Amino acid sequence: MRKLSLIILFTTVMTLNMNSQNPFFTNYNTPHQTPPFDKIKNEHFEPAFEKGMEEHSDEIDAIVNNHDAPTFANTIEAYEKSGELLSKVASVFFNLLSAESNDEMMEISQRMSPKLSEHSNNIGLNEKLFARVKAVYDVRNNLGLTPEQVRLTEEIYKSFEDRGVTLSAEDKETYRRLSSDLSQTTLEFGQNALKESNKFEMLLTDEAELAGLPRSIRDGARDKAKQKGKDGWMFDLSGPSYLAFMKYSDRRDLREKLYIAYSTKCVAGGEFDNQENVRKIVNIRLQLANLLGYPDYAAFSLRDKMAKNKEGVYNLLDNLYDAYGEQARKDVAEVESFAKKEQGSGFALQPWDWSYYSEKLQTAKYDLNDEMVRPYFELENVKKGVFGLATDLYGVTFRKNPEIPVYHDEVEAFEVYDANGKFLSVLFTDFHPREGKRQGAWMTEYKGQYIRDGKDSRPHVSIVMNFTRATENEPALLTFYEVETFLHEFGHALHGMLTDCTYETLSGTNVARDFVELPSQVMENWLTEKKYLDQFAVHYKTGEKIPSELVQKLVDAANFNTGYLCYRQLSFGYLDMAWHTMEKPFDGDVKDFERQAMAKTALLPVVDGTNMSTSFGHIFSGGYAAGYYSYKWSEVLDADAFAAFKENGIFDKKTAESFRKNVLEKGNTQDPMDLYVKFRGKTPSIDALLERNGIKHPDKKDIAKEIDEKRKN
């Protein structure tokens, strides 16, 4: 008995010691209570998840078992505050799973995913909890609540409906199983895509194989090979490597090889094949939508978006399809004609030729290519320019703080301050590709903003990208597209950093998917403004400002291939909608389905065996299912919004203040169209986008009017 007591005591002490060493179980002793990345280890995550779920369950039980009548404070607000530890752990883990992953973290995610789904379902399907929420919701307009409190009540009520709380007992069990399966499958989809991308390497050992590649690209490929312990020049499927090779390499056979590798990710068989995952994901989403009373997943997903329904989405896509069609076909014909002049009339343009001959044609037409611009876009200067735009528009300043822990030595942390010296946010920046980082660029946060007990708790925001690295001979020199991407993600960051809401659920970028891209896309417009470029775009060797004639070339070339590029985005939107407007389970061929869905926008030959869906993370492992159209939707908004800056001056303080107060600060506290109208004074018009792109207005009903009609109905 004494031995057993000693064992119990020893086990208890060990558990307490482990808990005391787990950084998630203490108040972060870091500047602004940012995550202590230097102390967090993989073994800390699972115990922290388990404890976080336990605490969250106890907090929910306290709400449910409260004998007092439901009120906003003891039910809605209490629910909003619950789950703090779980959120703290999840934000760190899942952000690192995208930006700094490893095999052990992937294994942890596979183990925790079903547990987290079950925990979420236990709350979302809790009838007693929902009864209290509904009691407040039913009388929300008679309680003297603020508009934001009413909005929060409505959003929480809808979230319970969306999670099946009103279903029968049998359907609730079905919902539990389906949502758990969906979580697991989307996780597996994303991990397969990352592993498949990391697996491919193209090592070149003959310098003749580098024909056409600028020295900076060669240097980067040589450095990449050295990092792998190999001699030669290495290319892979990361953005800077893939895009540069496809744009500049004279070796058509190698361009084809790289294109096929990129375009057959997770579709050519093998352990990372995602075809079955695609089928499972779309079918589970359809089943969930049907359970909740919707004919297809798009109908379920769109009801709270600005578009409202699939008719609103197709109205946008089809209007743009008609408006840009003539220009798109002209763009392709021009590139093809140019290629045939170089290669002969029998030359057939293939997808792996597009970037290469487009770049050559752009150089011939405008005397412009990436290599002419890159010397003026040295990363450190670009950072000053991007941050400086926020200073010019909103008075925001940035101070690097090396005392803030980061998750990789390439990551930097900045304190962000308002014009009056008020602390606004911490901003993490992470610029370059790594094996543990997924492709693309994104903004995220480790903590959202909220006001509690009179204290404004400010957010911790991060922007993550995959930009060109420095080489042994040059600093990191960005392409025009990379600078544009930086501005885009920084726009999201401003949306997260400048937010001024009471409740975290409504703050920052927690807005409708087809509104969230407005603050990001509008920032891209400054990049062809000489007055802005003069502030930071200087030659990295001479310090010379970017010449006016080079800026004019950028302006002249701004609409180069604009028709083709619009059709490319439309093809993704049509594909997304095709997958999510199905009303019957899908058991067909993924490649055939995709080919048919994208047929109307196909401008180049479709290569057998290629497929986008199996690595289309935006819709199969991200948040854009039935929502990819939002990039074009927001483009209508951003063109119209920037027109206001053009009318009043691109650094006009009054216009910027209105955009900040009515869009960036408000989060989801009001209807997004109402917020936009408060800023602009009118509903958005497609005219600004068509004018910006040099496209003749189609003889059709204005998209803006359609948007407003859908909203009112």
Kindly describe this structure:
The chain is mainly alpha-helical. 57% of the residues lie in helices and 6% in strands. It has a five-stranded mixed β-sheet with strand order 3-4-5-9-6. Helix 26 crosses helix 29 (687-693). The relative contact order is 0.10.
Write the layout of secondary structure elements.
Blueprint: H1 2-21, H2 42-64, H3 72-81, H4 84-99, H5 103-124, H6 127-138, H7 147-162, H8 169-199, E1 202-204, H9 215-227, E2 233-235, H10 239-248, H11 252-263, H12 275-291, H13 297-302, H14 310-343, H15 351-366, H16 370-373, H17 379-394, E3 397-400, E4 412-417, E5 423-430, E6 442-447, E7 450-452, E8 455-457, E9 460-464, H18 480-497, H19 513-516, H20 518-521, H21 530-533, H22 548-556, H23 562-580, H24 590-597, H25 617-620, H26 630-648, H27 653-664, H28 672-680, H29 687-693, H30 703-712
Parallel strand pairs: 5-9
Antiparallel strand pairs: 1-2, 3-4, 4-5, 6-9, 7-8
